[in-house]
Amino acid sequence: MSPSPASLDPPSLEALVESGMIELESLHPGGLLLTAELADLCAISTGLKVLDVACGTGESACYLAEKFGARVCGLDRSEALLARASDKAGSRSLDIQFCRGDAATLPFPDGEFDVVVCECTLCLLDKMSALSEMVRVVRRGGRVGIHDLYWDQAAAGALRDRLTANEGEEPETFEGWKRLFERGGLVAVAAVDRSELKTRWMRDVRGQLGLAGQLRLGVYATRRWGFGGLWRILRSEHLFSNRRLGYALVVGTRP
Ligand SMILES: C[S@@+](CC[C@H](N)C(=O)[O-])C[C@H]1O[C@@H](n2cnc3c(N)ncnc32)[C@H](O)[C@@H]1O
């Protein structure tokens, strides 16, 4: 019998969060502190229309609406995470539009938003197509901001190749992200190194799970994806800890 599609799913962070095996709301290093820094760099303020591409559980979308007074729209491909995001916004009486869609073809007209953000996801996508879509839907003078992994040039191609093979992730170097933004048509591009948050985040997630949680996660992963899946999670953790892998905020303006 051929395996079911679910058993072929990679053991991604969102799959583990959707299953309840990992209880996280912000699915990125630095949590809402980093979201606040991104919001400041993107000059998000009351009444601005903001799109959060790949919004996950809606944690950042709710935060941007609640703390910055932004009019937020969140888009993600995961139905389960969007349901969770809508419940969260509802329970806080926040008027946020969540919609299902693909970052590669955003279902919005040109220039619809003042700011477009994408947290910890661009390196999973076809970066230039997704970035072009983000630039298309932001107005002239509006900002596009992300935070994501970057790899150290000194690590040569080996680390990047392992990341791509194991995770399907293709980060740029720190300078490479800036060049990508410029090639995408953005100006006044700035990047900030926040690699220290990546290390702290891993420690926090491990601490939150505890030994019992890590064992439960191991059993779950083996049942769902077989030993190959468990091995892949262990390798992911190992790769993510690599000191040659950094974390950066990148912001640019549409001229
Ligand atoms: C690492 S999580 C980050 C979630 C959220 N931005 C955060 O930082 O908490 C990656 C997210 O990207 C979403 N995703 C992956 N590929 C996507 C695509 N092509 N279009 C839209 N969402 C996508 C996943 O469903 C998941 O919610």
Outline of the structure:
This protein has 255 residues and is an alpha/beta fold.
Q: What fold name goes in the CATH topology slot? A: Rossmann fold
Largest sheet: 7 strands, mixed
Distance between the termini: 55 Å
Hetero ligands: S-adenosylmethionine
- The second-level CATH architecture is 3-Layer(aba) Sandwich
Pick out the low-confidence regions: 1-8
Count of distinct strands: 7
CATH uppermost class: Alpha Beta
**What share of the residues lie within helices?**
40-55%
List the helices and strands in order: HHHEHEHEEHEHHEHE
What does this structure look like?
The protein has 255 residues and is of the alpha/beta class. It has a single domain, classed as Vaccinia Virus protein VP39 (Rossmann fold, 3-Layer(aba) Sandwich), CATH 3.40.50. It has helices spanning 5-8, 13-18, 31-41, 59-68, 79-91, 127-137, 158-167, 174-183, 195-241, and strands spanning 49-53, 71-76, 97-100, 113-119, 138-151, 187-193, 245-253. It has a 7-stranded mixed sheet with strand order 3-2-1-4-5-7-6, sandwiched between helices. α5 (79-91) links the parallel β2 and β3. α7 (158-167) packs across α9. The termini are far apart. Mean pLDDT is 89; it is low at 1-8.
